[in-house]
């Protein structure tokens, strides 16, 4: 099975730090997985960012995942893609990128998760757990009990899809979420908006891995 990090950090468009600066800080904090999420730039601007972040990730031994933009595969040192479209055809995407590229997807229901598992996704971001300004949407929140039930249903289906909780997660949510049996947690806003980025990252990392 592919390496999937249990604590995933996601970059975001924020006024005080560029995506490159966010990646640098995350790596300095010990990140082994960075998801570059930028939906506001041209391909030329994206590649400029991605190539700079890829160099940082290479220096630190960090996996680089790009949100969407799968057409950029092969144009920079990208290890994988996270597709936010819950209707994305992962069978077709896998044929497009091959088996070495990591593919993750977003899910809001167990039905979404089961389809991702069936179509060969390597992991799923399941949420939103709580209200978040990072990725505004009208999807229903996924409660703790729902995470537990999702894990049980996938086990019953003999699925090895790794589920990560995502969406508005705070440090005090981590212990309860991990007790549901999920694989890990993905975070953006709680780290990006913290007074001390590195300390916030490390607190989450330690809580997830404990």
Q: Look at the structure and give the CATH class.
A: Alpha Beta
Radius of gyration (CA) equals 16 Å
Strand order of the largest sheet: 1-2-3-4-5-6-7-8
Structural class: alpha/beta
Query: What would the principal axes of the Cα set say about the shape?
Result: globular
Main beta-sheet annotation: 8 strands, parallel, barrel
Number of strands: 8
Task: State mean pLDDT (0 to 100 scale).
Answer: 96
CATH level 3 topology? TIM Barrel
Protein name: Thiamine-phosphate pyrophosphorylase
EC number: 2.5.1.3
Pfam families: TMP-TENI
GO molecular function: thiamine-phosphate diphosphorylase activity
Task: Describe, in plain words, how this protein is organized in 3D.
Strand 7 (162-166), helix 6 (174-178) and strand 8 form a beta-alpha-beta unit. The protein has helices at residues 19-29, 43-60, 90-97, 110-118, 144-156, 174-178, 189-192, 197-209; strands at 7-10, 33-36, 63-67, 80-83, 102-107, 123-126, 162-166, 184-187. Helix 1 runs parallel beside helix 2 and helix 1 (19-29) crosses helix 8. It contains eight helices and eight strands, in the order E-H-E-H-E-E-H-E-H-E-H-E-H-E-H-H. It is α/β, with parallel strands linked by helices. The protein has a single domain (7-209), classed as Alpha-Beta Barrel (TIM Barrel), CATH 3.20.20.70. Pathway: Cofactor biosynthesis; thiamine diphosphate biosynthesis. One of its GO terms (biological process) is thiamine biosynthetic process. Keywords: Thiamine biosynthesis, Transferase. InterPro entries: Aldolase_TIM, ThiamineP_synth_sf, ThiamineP_synth_TenI. This is Thiamine-phosphate pyrophosphorylase.
């Amino acid at each position: 099975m592919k390496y999937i990090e249990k604590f995933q950090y996601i970059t975001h468009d924020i006024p005080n730090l560029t995506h490159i600066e966010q990646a640098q800080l995350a790596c300095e904090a010990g990140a082994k997985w960075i998801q570059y999420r930028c939906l506001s730039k041209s391909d030329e601007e994206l590649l400029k960012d991605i190539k700079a972040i890829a160099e940082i990730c290479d220096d630190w031994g960090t996996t680089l995942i790009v949100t969407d933009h799968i057409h950029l595969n092969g144009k920079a040192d990208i290890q994988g893609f996270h597709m936010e479209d819950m209707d994305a055809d992962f069978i077709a995407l896998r044929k497009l990128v091959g088996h070495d590229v990591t593919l993750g997807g977003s899910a809001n229901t167990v039905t979404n998760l089961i389809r991702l598992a069936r179509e060969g996704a390597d992991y799923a971001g399941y949420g939103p757990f709580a209200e978040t300004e990072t990725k505004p949407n009208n999807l229903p929140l996924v409660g703790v009990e729902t995470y537990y039930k999702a894990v049980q249903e996938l086990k019953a289906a003999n699925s090895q899809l790794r589920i990560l909780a995502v969406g508005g997660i705070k440090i005090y949510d981590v212990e309860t979420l991990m007790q549901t049996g999920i694989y890990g947690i993905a975070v953006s806003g709680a780290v990006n908006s913290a007074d001390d980025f590195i300390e916030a990252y490390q607190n989450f990392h330690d809580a997830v891995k404990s």
